[in-house]
Write a structure and sequence with these properties.
single chain, serine acetyltransferase, domain 1, Aminopeptidase, 3 domains, 7-stranded mixed β-sheet, 17 helices, 15 strands, about 45% helix
Length: about 425
């Protein structure tokens, strides 16, 4: 071989090696090789097992260890699930088989057990099947795969399918998210209403025609990327279109979402672009889906009907968050009573937004809305959601405020309700709309 030819081959080999190294680097760092979602997503996934299996908030060292394992691909969703459900801390709780299976449904499937599946699994355990074998059955199911997909996590070792959810088809929700609107009535200013319906947990009405005992009006400016939450007391006395005067929470009970939306538009004087509604049966599992929420409670709460909890910062599971948002007895701050729980609920929603915003992005938005449809009803459209997403993802605590109009308990005939000065209320909402 000539010297010239040998030099040429050495150069070719040198460039080939460089090309292969660059290709390998691109492969390693390309999305298809990333083993899990971002840190916020993975933390939410792990936190849900602390809350639902161990009934406590995460310790930082344990959380960091699990999150690191998922982010690097050393651990899978099944490893985490088994790590908690077979841990000494969990075993020491000595749950019976029925309770054990119920916890698996909540932690692994994010729902309450159906009677058929529940009876089958309990029967297997009672007949001698090991708990580890039952856990394997749960972690290899499509429901667990779907749950992991929404956190961008590999469900179990050897899994070859997708690890992200790109459509709402993965979830068969009990709620509904529909909508065809392409924009917003006030241009780049978005106005919507969040309703908490007084139904579920065996109460009638549902998200179709129950009373909206929690009403939070939201104004979002897409240019300034600032948002204002306005709690509107459930007993606010106002005109219900076509039905005379009454408490504003009754509009939904009388005429469903359409009449309620019309009543709140008339009351605020602001066109409402869409609504979001949930109830007791939707709110608690929604919080569990997000892996719980950490919120500040500024006074001791001793509501004999819901919860007793000391002031401080707490990481709440779904049932606890629902209880805190319902608690109105023994409250003194923010006006006490129902005023206090309205403010507490708005604060919790802000915490949920800021803490869990990392779970959604432009690539998984459709699937994320599909997952939320298990817990809420809304007439937001995908296009509207796409337009507001950048603003929501950019917000910090300093960008969201809670503002209230002046109101007070007042009797209207035999009705004990909430009154206000009409002119002052109108000026207040005009100022909100201008922000």
């Amino acid at each position: 071989m000539s010297k010239t030819k040998s030099v040429r081959l050495n150069k070719v080999w040198k460039y080939a090696v460089i090309f292969l190294c660059i290709t390998a680097l691109f492969a390693v760092f390309s999305p298809s090789f990333i083993n899990a979602g971002n840190t916020s997503q993975v933390e939410a996934f792990v936190s849900r097992f602390y809350i639902l299996c161990l009934d406590r908030q995460p310790d930082q060292s344990g959380l960091s260890q699990w999150v690191s394992g998922l982010l690097t691909g050393v651990k899978t969703g099944a490893d985490v699930a088994k790590g908690f459900a077979l841990s000494k801390e969990f075993i020491d709780k000595k749950y019976d088989n029925a309770t054990f299976v119920t916890i698996l449904y909540r932690a692994f499937f994010d729902r309450e057990p159906d009677s058929g599946g529940f009876n089958t699994w309990v029967s297997k355990l009672n007949s001698g099947t090991s708990r580890e074998a039952v856990i394997d059955g749960f972690t290899h199911s499509q429901e667990f795969i779907d749950l992991c997909a929404h956190y961008a996590i590999v469900p179990y070792p050897g899994y070859k399918g997708a690890t992200t959810s790109s459509s709402s088809a993965s979830y068969a929700g009990s709620g509904e998210i529909t909508g065809t609107a392409s924009g917003f009535a006030s241009g780049n200013k978005v106005n919507f209403i969040i309703w908490g319906d007084d139904s579920g947990l065996g109460r009638p009405g549902g998200r179709v025609n129950g009373r909206t005992d929690m009403n939070i009006f939201v104004h979002l400016n897409l240019d300034t990327r600032k948002a204002v939450l306005v709690p509107i007391p459930r007993d606010t006395w106002t005109s219900i279109p076509g039905h005379g005067k009454g408490k504003i929470n009754g509009a939904h009970a009388i005429g469903g979402n359409a009449l309620a939306e019309a009543a709140f538009e008339q009351f605020t004087g602001i066109p409402i672009d869409f609504y979001v509604i949930t109830d007791f049966d939707g709110f608690a599992p929604l919080i569990n889906y997000f892996g719980g929420v950490t919120t500040r409670i500024e006074e001791n709460i001793a509501d004999k009907y819901t919860i007793t909890i000391n002031a401080g910062t707490h990481t709440l599971n779904g049932d606890q968050a629902l209880a805190v948002c319902r608690a109105r007895y023994g409250r003194t701050l923010y006006g006490g009573g129902a005023y206090a729980r309205e403010t507490q609920s708005a604060m919790l929603l802000i915490d949920l937004l800021i803490q869990k915003r990392g779970m959604v992005n432009s690539n998984n938005l459709a699937g994320f809305l599909g997952a939320l449809s298990q817990f809420i009803w809304s007439n937001i459209s995908l296009e509207q959601a796409q337009r507001i997403l950048p603003a929501l993802l950019s917000m910090g605590y300093e960008d969201v405020s809670i503002q209230k109009f002046n109101s007070w308990p007042q009797s209207f005939g035999k009705a004990s309700a909430v009154g206000y000065n009409e002119a002052q209320k109108n000026a207040f909402f005009a100022n909100i709309a201008a922000q």
